[in-house]
């Protein structure tokens, strides 16, 4: 590899990076609102620039990358990839985004520059983030440090010329040039490391660990660490090693493809492979790379919700940033505000997706792994979210079954199907079986031959399913003898469903043993000790591979997702219907058992005394002494949750609840001891809804049914026996606390009063149901209680109209049509409620009609729309300042005398300046008013407005009679102010209004803050006086002499005039016989207009036709690539070739102009080039395969010109006929017809179809 050439490439990257930085700084200077975006842009690009500079210095000290032992292998690999070119292309595209739009966009709008500003910088940042993977080598701190170490180890440049032959003078000169350019770039990079370090230190100073920790705790992201450790423990040593070696995985890990999906059937070991990926990433984690992972697990209800997946990933990404002492809250300000308002963490997928994307941008190389997508309950939402997270910045690795919905969503994305990895899976499975046979005592005594038989039989029947293998090993371990093992091997079940069926049939044979476990008898007030199992292993052994037992926690769960699917599916109904699990019946049994168990504990069991700790009776067996606290814990924390799944027909649960209520009343202190001991962080016992049963003030039955049960069950309870609520309680408060409008409606329809206070669910205070519904922002409940004639406490209005009101305006509006509100307004007439409401809500409310309704109601009850506040402002002035159109329209319906300076308020409003100004002018507002500086309205908008709004305002003012040529007290017109500020878009727009040009406008343009050249060209185009003299007697020519130099971007005025398409300016400059820049024709190719005339004119003046662009393309290549009209392209091509441009020139990709003309479908140009006796490329027909237009015509012409239809590609041995059919993807009738035509042409010309 040529070190000098590579150094030249990295120099181009450094220069391009510097140009993007310069462009960003120029725009940040012009637009103050772009400063924040500019800083974000600078942070990464400065790192790129600094690393590139160090790499340049290292490269100039060696002659060959591959032979120098001091050069890092990663640098060699990077240069041998296509990433350097992609980096360069991306930087050029970023510069183009910032410096200006393309011509097609420009034709649609006259305002060229005002709309660029911050949006364009943000677009450049988004583009960089999308393709950040290209830059990961340059952005890595590890790369930076390693290359720097290499540079320090290398010899100084004195040995460079010794390694270069005297014949390589060009290389020597290139190296010298490189050294000079390094010196220039180094000067601009010296402070980068310091600035980055200072920036990081500054952020660390502002870091408040306690607040960040509290914020992350509030976010409550599910932690999957334990699940990962458990899954990792299932992996046998030396297995799963094949996955990191696959080409797709390595490409994904390097950042080549940001998404990778591992798909396989049920039980094929996907979760174990996911744990291996996580371990691989953690072991080989590089600087700036962070990992977030999640396991969807059907055993954990939280983990199978899409919003829990996203919230966990969000929390992990934010926590990683916090570990680097970065205040991660800055990336999610909306979330911080949500917490400060006292709201709970978001569950809305649409809110969480952008939050995860924002958190990911805190890191240079974020990686996310999500396992078992198919186990997610709302998998469609999760798939949509993952597709949106696949933005190119985040690297995503996911696993799932190959279900149809998932295949459709991930179509076209990289996938590793486990079905295609048979050999690797079989090798892992073999290791797993060997470990199991050697590790279990039951198998150790077997002879080697039998072990081989077991291994062979299991491998033969596995069909890639580790789960199936594990079930068979568990079953074989129960065989009493070697003979029984051999018999079992002869009839191994096929698939998982048959396996599970056999396990259940085996349970049938041990039914008596299983029944002993059902110790809770719902028909008795004691436990049935006769039914107790001797030991827990009896149960576990009977259930076999269907369940898993965690010895540490004592929890038994279904062992695999496929077990749950089988037990609840349709197949078991036909095979073993008695084992089919009906969800509602199961929930009813569990709910009743838990409630009954609590009653037994309060009375018979006595786990908890009135005083002292929880005790276990000495008569209990060891098994029961362990199980009782666990079952009590489950009954308290999860037992009532089962009520949510019940419908009518489950009235027996009411009897159990009544018994429990009676037991609680009989043993209040014991119940309090239970509640205290077992108040864990579960939903039932959370701070928000904890129970205070010790004083027996709350109504147990209503609380439980409203909190947990569906509304139909509550209704059935009320029909069951017309129960009377407890004195001092109001069950509507429970409905308000838990957001249950249907429950509330049922209670109201049965006579419960909405106007009666009661004790809150947490026992903290007494309140009306309406108060709680308002505080918790439950719209439907507020409406219900108001319809039910609940009174409205005065303190609700006090809170609603305070500046820091916690209530949204939609809720406030509901309270205003009450008698209490009329009374409240009467007692608060000195509060300027109209003014304060507009200021508080004018820029925050989303539904404009709500605010107008509120204001209208205030006026109805006595607020004066004409009164001035303490600042002398009417409500109209306040609304105009805020920029709230509907409110202004509403206030203008009153007989209001418009304040004289109202238009000054309108043109500087917070928003909607154009609409506001037009509306007020229509109502008679004066446009000739001046402020204290003598500025007119047009002067003011030159200072204050931004974006395309100002043009509409200026037009409306001028149309209404505002003088655009009026001078202020400084002698300046609005145009002077715009020119002085360098606001080129504003100037262009004003000129479009055909206003007269002041005599001295060019002198003002000479001293403009920016864009002097463009400004002057534009003004000259409009007829500005070029003969004007300044106060020193100098004319524009003398004042502009410095403008003949190159600017920061390396452009002369001629470059800019050519690029802008100012044909007359170009003609004028060429008439001065100025020296043509060597690259001027490259600029002309991309001119916004008059490209053809411009290039012909420049060629006639002797412009260099041999110039190459940065990609190594010549002018003939470029004119065909830049979408010129084919006729124009042909005209320019003839002029270029006539002037000596080489039509046989190959670019770095090996393409000649003829190749490109064929690919672009330029029939006439191909004919012209072939008429020059240019040899037809051997691969011409293969190039024509890529032609998007005139493909059949192009093929026919090339064949007529002698193209060989029998030519084959060396690597694939494919003919053109193979290639055209293989690459065709469109199914449209037109496209298929074209394909058929091309195939006929090829076959007719001798191509062999067989």
UniProtKB/TrEMBL annotation:
| PROSITE patterns named among the record's database cross-references | ANK_REP_REGION (PS50297), ANK_REPEAT (PS50088), NACHT (PS50837)
SUPFAM superfamilies xref list: Ankyrin repeat, P-loop containing nucleoside triphosphate hydrolases
Which segments carry the ANK repeats? 871-892, 970-992, 1049-1071, 1149-1171
Query: Has UniProt tagged this entry with the keyword Repeat?
Result: yes
Instruction: Note the SMART domains from the entry.
Output: ANK (SM00248)
Q: Write the record's keywords in alphabetical order, separated by commas.
A: ANK repeat, Repeat
Pfam families, alphabetized: Ank (PF00023), Ank_2 (PF12796), NPHP3_N (PF24883)
Coiled coil, from the record: none
Which InterPro entries does the protein's record reference?
Ankyrin_rpt (IPR002110), Ankyrin_rpt-contain_sf (IPR036770), NACHT_NTPase (IPR007111), NPHP3-like_N (IPR056884), P-loop_NTPase (IPR027417)
Domain NACHT span(s) in chain numbering = 258-375
* Regions that span the bilayer: none
| Record's protein name | NACHT domain-containing protein
Query: Which species does this protein come from?
Result: Paxillus involutus ATCC 200175
């Amino acid at each position: 590899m040529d070190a000098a050439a590579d150094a030249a490439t990295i120099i181009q990257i450094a220069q391009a990076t510097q140009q993007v930085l310069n462009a960003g700084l120029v725009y940040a200077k012009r637009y103050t609102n772009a400063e924040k975006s500019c800083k974000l842009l600078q942070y990464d690009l400065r790192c790129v620039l600094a690393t590139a500079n160090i790499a340049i210095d290292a490269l100039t000290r060696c002659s060959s990358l591959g032979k120098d032992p001091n050069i890092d292998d990663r640098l060699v690999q990077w240069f041998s990839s296509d990433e350097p070119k992609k980096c360069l292309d991306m930087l050029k595209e970023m510069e183009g985004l910032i410096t200006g739009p393309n011509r097609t966009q420009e034709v649609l709008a006259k305002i060229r520059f005002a709309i660029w500003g911050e949006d364009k910088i943000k677009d450049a940042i988004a583009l960089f983030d999308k393709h950040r993977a290209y830059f990961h080598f340059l952005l890595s701190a590890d790369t930076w440090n390693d290359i720097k170490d290499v540079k320090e180890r290398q010899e100084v440049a004195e040995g460079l010329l010794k390694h270069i032959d005297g014949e390589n003078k060009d290389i020597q000169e290139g190296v010298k040039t490189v050294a000079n350019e390094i010196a220039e770039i180094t000067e601009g990079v010296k402070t980068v490391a310091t600035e980055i370090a200072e920036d990081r230190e500054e952020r660390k100073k502002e870091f408040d660990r306690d607040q960040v920790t509290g914020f992350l705790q509030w976010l409550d992201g599910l932690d999957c660490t334990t699940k990962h450790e458990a899954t990792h423990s299932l992996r046998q040593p030396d297995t799963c090693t094949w996955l990191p070696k696959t080409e797709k995985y390595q490409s994904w890990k390097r950042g080549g493809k940001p998404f990778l999906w591992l798909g396989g059937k049920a039980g094929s070991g996907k979760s174990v492979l996911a744990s291996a990926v996580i371990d691989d990433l953690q072991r080989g984690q590089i600087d700036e790379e962070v990992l977030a992972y999640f396991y969807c697990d059907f055993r954990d209800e939280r983990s199978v919700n899409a919003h829990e997946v996203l919230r966990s990933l969000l929390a992990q990404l934010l926590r990683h940033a916090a570990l680097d002492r970065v205040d991660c809250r800055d990336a999610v300000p909306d979330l911080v505000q949500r917490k400060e308002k006292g709201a709970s963490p978001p569950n809305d997928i649409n809110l969480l997706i952008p939050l995860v994307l924002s958190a990911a941008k805190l890191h240079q190389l974020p990686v996310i792994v999500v396992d078992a997508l198919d186990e997610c309950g709302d998998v469609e939402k999760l798939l949509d979210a993952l597709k949106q997270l696949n933005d190119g910045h985040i690297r995503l690795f996911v696993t799932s079954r190959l279900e149809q919905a998932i295949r459709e969503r991930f179509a076209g994305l990289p996938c590793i199907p486990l079905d295609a990895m048979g050999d690797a899976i079989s090798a892992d499975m073999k290791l797993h079986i060997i470990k199991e046979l050697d590790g279990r005592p039951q198998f150790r005594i077997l002879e080697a031959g039998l072990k081989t038989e077991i291994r062979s039989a299991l491998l033969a029947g596995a069909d890639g399913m580790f789960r199936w293998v594990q079930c068979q090993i568990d079953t074989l371990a129960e065989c009493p003898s070697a003979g029984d093992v051999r018999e079992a091997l002869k009839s191994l079940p096929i698939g998982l469903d048959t396996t599970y069926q056999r396990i259940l049939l085996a349970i049938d044979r041990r039914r008596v043993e299983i029944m002993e476990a059902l110790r809770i008898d719902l028909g008795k007030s004691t436990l049935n000790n006769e039914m107790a199992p001797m030991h827990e292993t009896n149960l576990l052994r009977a259930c076999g591979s269907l369940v898993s037992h965690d010895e540490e926690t004592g929890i038994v769960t279904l062992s695999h997702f496929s077990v749950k699917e089988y037990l609840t599916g349709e197949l078991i109904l036909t095979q073993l219907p008695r084992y089919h699990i009906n969800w509602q019946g199961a929930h009813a049994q569990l709910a009743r058992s838990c409630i009954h168990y609590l009653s037994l504990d309060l009375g018979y069991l006595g786990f908890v005394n009135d005083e002292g700790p929880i005790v276990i009776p000495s008569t209990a067996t060891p098994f029961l002494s362990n199980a009782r606290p666990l079952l009590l814990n489950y009954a308290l924390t999860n037992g009532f949750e089962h009520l949510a799944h019940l419908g009518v027909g489950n009235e027996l649960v009411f009897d159990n609840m009544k018994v429990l209520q009676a037991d609680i009343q009989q043993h209040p202190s014991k119940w309090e001891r239970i509640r205290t001991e077992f108040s864990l962080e579960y939903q039932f016992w959370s701070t928000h809804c904890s129970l205070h049963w010790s004083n027996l003030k709350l109504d147990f039955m209503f609380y439980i049914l409203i909190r947990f049960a569906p509304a139909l069950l509550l209704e059935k309870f009320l029909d069951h026996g017309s129960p009377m609520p407890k004195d001092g309680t109001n069950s509507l408060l429970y409905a308000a606390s838990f957001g249950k409008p249907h429950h509330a409606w049922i209670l109201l329809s049965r006579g419960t009063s909405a106007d009666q206070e009661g004790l809150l669910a947490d026992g903290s205070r007494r309140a009306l149901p309406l108060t709680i519904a308002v505080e918790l922002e439950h719209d439907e409940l507020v409406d219900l209680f108001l319809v039910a004639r609940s009174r409205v406490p005065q303190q609700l209005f006090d809170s609603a109209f305070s500046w820091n009101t916690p209530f949204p305006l939609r809720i406030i509006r509901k309270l205003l049509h009450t008698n209490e509100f009329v009374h409240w307004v009467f007692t608060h007439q000195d509060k300027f409620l109209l003014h304060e409401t507009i200021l508080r809500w004018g820029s925050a409310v989303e539904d404009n009609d709500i605010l107008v309704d509120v204001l209208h109601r205030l006026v109805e009850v006595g607020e004066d729309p004409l009164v001035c506040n303490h600042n002398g402002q009417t409500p109209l002035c306040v609304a105009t300042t805020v920029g709230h159109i509907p409110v202004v329209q509403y206030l203008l319906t009153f007989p209001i005398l418009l304040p004289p300076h109202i238009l000054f308020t309108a043109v500087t409003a917070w928003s909607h300046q154009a609409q506001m100004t037009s509306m007020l002018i229509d109502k008679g507002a004066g446009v000739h008013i001046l402020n204290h500086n003598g500025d007119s309205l047009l002067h003011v908008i030159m200072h204050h407005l931004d974006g395309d709004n100002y043009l509409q305002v200026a037009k409306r003012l001028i149309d209404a009679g505002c003088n655009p040529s009026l001078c202020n007290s400084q002698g300046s017109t609005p145009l002077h102010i715009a020119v002085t500020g360098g606001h080129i878009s504003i100037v262009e727009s004003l000129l479009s209004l055909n206003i007269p040009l002041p005599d001295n406008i060019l002198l003002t343009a000479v001293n403009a803050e920016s864009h002097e050249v463009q400004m002057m060209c534009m003004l000259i185009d409009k007829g500005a006086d070029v003969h004007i003299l300044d106060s020193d007697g100098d004319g524009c020519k003398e004042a502009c002499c410095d403008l003949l130099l190159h600017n920061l971007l390396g452009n002369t005025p001629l470059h800019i005039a050519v690029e802008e398409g100012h044909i007359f300016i170009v003609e004028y400059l060429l008439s001065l016989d100025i020296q043509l820049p060597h690259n001027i024709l490259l600029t002309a190719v991309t001119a916004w207009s008059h490209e053809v005339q411009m290039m012909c004119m420049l060629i006639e003046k002797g412009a260099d036709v041999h110039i190459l662009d940065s990609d190594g393309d010549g002018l003939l290549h470029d004119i065909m690539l830049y979408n010129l009209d084919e006729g124009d392209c042909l005209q320019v091509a003839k002029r270029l070739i006539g002037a000596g441009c080489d039509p046989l020139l190959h670019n770095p990709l090996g393409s000649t102009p003829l190749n490109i003309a064929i690919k672009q479908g330029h029939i006439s140009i191909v004919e012209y080039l072939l008429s020059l006796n240019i040899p037809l490329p051997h691969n011409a027909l293969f190039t024509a395969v890529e032609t998007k237009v005139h493909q059949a015509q192009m093929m026919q012409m090339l064949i007529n010109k002698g193209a060989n239809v029998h030519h084959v590609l060396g690597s694939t041995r494919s003919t053109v006929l193979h290639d055209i059919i293989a690459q065709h993807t469109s199914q449209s009738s037109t496209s298929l017809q074209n394909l058929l035509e091309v195939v006929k042409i090829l076959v007719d010309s001798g191509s062999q179809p067989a």
